[in-house]
């Protein structure tokens, strides 16, 4: 007797539902109750059903063609309380990377500002649903409350910062621990021993405290007289920075804030003759002057769109129970602001460095 080939029809017959329900259940469509989806999937597994990938691609193409002749749209969501024009440079670069990649893949992009005057979350969601927009790229936020009220059931999103992890979206953000490792190890190779690191509480939170975690591990494996206490506070003023440098006497300052470089120069420090400076993941694409650990912020935006494209192609919507995290690694870029102490200091100075330093605070 000829064995019946498993199909949506055989699954539907055993499950007591229509073939359309089977099709939607196997695609995790939210219109099918979760318990029904699981029951249908179990029956499909028992029957040994495997979908035809060519047929699936054809059906997706036909459905989309019937629905709209226009290019599909990806929403770029600004969850901060500041307008797009005033967003920090890293968010701007992420947005540009997302727009460029979306264009390459045949998508349009549209900006949505959650906190736009006169615009409420409910209205934003209505616009997205009416327009048939299911894909969302969430730009970096400083506070989860800015985006936590975003409905998730009918959308698929990718967050471009670690803060938005609880949204249930896949994430793409810098590899903070690796970036710090790259910065510190690069400076150590150039002969630096007293590495001074400064960071605001907001920057520390955005990194999930991983910058400090690596540096503290590094310091625990170095002599006590080479350790410079970390400068960390809610905000770092020019006065605080200069006082910290004069007290801790670092060989090099490592900071996420490019303004600190200019403050040091304004205070009379000759860089790199008196003091070297390196930037940690600055939101800039310039090279030459300031040595830095470069993060590809445009790559973050592009990768977010790549992940989103895959989910949308499979028509998957709704929050994920265990979202994936994609980390973008940092790379060291040389600059004139850093020059190893072995090449800039006199023999007398080197001799002084071998003497124990007074323990700070």
Looking at the overall shape, the CATH architecture of the largest domain is 3-Layer(aba) Sandwich
Radius of gyration: 26 Å
Question: Percent range for helical residues?
Answer: 40-55%
Spans of 5+ residues with little confidence (pLDDT < 50)?
65-69, 344-361
CATH homologous superfamily assignment of the largest domain: Response regulator
Determine the structural class based on helices, strands and strand pairing.
Answer: alpha/beta
Count of separate structural domains: 3
SSE order, one letter for each helix or strand = HHHHEHEHEEEHEHHEHEHEEHEEHH
CATH level-3 fold name of the largest domain: Rossmann fold
Summarize the main sheet. Answer: 6 strands, parallel
Compute the number of helices. Answer: 14
Coarse morphology: elongated
Count every beta strand, where a strand is a DSSP E run of 2 or more residues. Answer: 12
Under CATH at level 1, the class of the largest domain stands as Alpha Beta
Note the gap between the termini: 87 Å
Q: Order of strands in the sheet with the most strands?
A: 2-1-3-4-5-11
**Average residue pLDDT:** 83
Beta-strand percent range: 5-15%
């Amino acid at each position: 007797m000829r064995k019946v080939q498993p199909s949506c029809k055989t699954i539907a017959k055993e499950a007591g539902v229509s073939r359309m329900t089977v099709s939607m259940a196997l695609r995790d469509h939210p219109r099918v109750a979760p318990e029904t989806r699981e029951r249908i999937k179990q029956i499909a597994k028992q029957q040994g059903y495997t979908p035809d990938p060519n047929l699936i691609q054809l059906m997706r193409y036909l459905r989309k063609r019937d629905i709209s002749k226009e290019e599909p749209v990806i929403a770029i969501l600004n969850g901060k309380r500041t307008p797009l024009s005033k967003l920090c440079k890293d968010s701007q670069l992420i947005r540009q990377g997302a727009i460029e990649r979306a264009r390459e893949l045949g998508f349009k992009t549209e900006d949505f500002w959650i906190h736009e005057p006169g615009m409420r979350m409910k209205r934003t969601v209505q616009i997205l649903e009416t327009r048939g927009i299911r894909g969302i790229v969430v730009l970096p936020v400083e506070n989860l409350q800015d985006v936590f009220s975003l409905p998730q059931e009918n959308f698929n999103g990718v967050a471009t910062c670690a803060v938005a992890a609880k949204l249930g979206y896949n994430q793409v953000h810098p590899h903070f621990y690796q970036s710090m490792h790259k910065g510190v190890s690069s400076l150590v190779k150039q002969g630096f021993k007293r590495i001074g690191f400064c960071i605001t509480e907001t920057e520390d939170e955005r990194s999930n405290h991983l910058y400090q975690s690596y540096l503290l591990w590094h310091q625990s494996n170095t002599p006590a007289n080479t350790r410079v206490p970390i400068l960390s506070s809610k905000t770092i003023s020019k006065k605080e920075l200069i006082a910290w440098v004069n007290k801790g006497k670092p060989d090099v300052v490592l900071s996420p804030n490019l303004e600190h470089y200019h403050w040091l120069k304004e205070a009379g420090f000759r860089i790199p003759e008196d003091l070297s400076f390196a930037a940690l993941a600055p939101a800039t694409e310039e090279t030459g002057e300031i040595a830095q650990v470069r993060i590809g912020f445009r790559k973050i935006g592009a990768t977010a769109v790549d992940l989103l494209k895959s989910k949308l192609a499979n028509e998957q919507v709704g929050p994920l129970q265990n979202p994936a995290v994609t980390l973008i690694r940092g790379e060291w870029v040389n600059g004139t602001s850093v020059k190893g102490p072995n090449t800039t200091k006199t023999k007398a100075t080197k001799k002084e460095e071998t003497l124990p330093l007074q323990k700070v605070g």
